[in-house]
Amino acid sequence: MKATDIFKRIACMLYESILLFAILFVAGIIHRALFGDPRTDMQRLYLFVYSWLIVGLYFVFCWVKSGQTLAMKTWNLQLLGYDGNFLSMECAIKRYVIASFSLMFFAIGFIWAIFDREGLSLHDRFSGGRLIEIPKNTQ
Question: Taking the domains of the chain in order of start, what are their residue ranges?
């Protein structure tokens, strides 16, 4: 994988984190308005699962609908299946779950892409996805 590809992916992830902060901020306000301040461990667990599901809805919806999140559009990246079409719902969910676990384990699935001969992350390998760079004038 080229250094420019790595830079684009990291920049996209940083931009994505800013967008997710805003999404989770609004989701947190809604959660707090409906259920109050999470005071017990169980309430905190529910908030964590709720937040994880909200982020999952965002990613899965974007990947299935257009193969791109807002950050991916900005950096001219697109997620496609091996067949060249957008990911199916099943593949998108699988990719999100595996990527979530990858982040919890020191981002090993993302780091894998640096050493992979095709530049695929572990969650792409297991879900049937491929992150590609698209020319600016085809969007």
Answer: 3-138
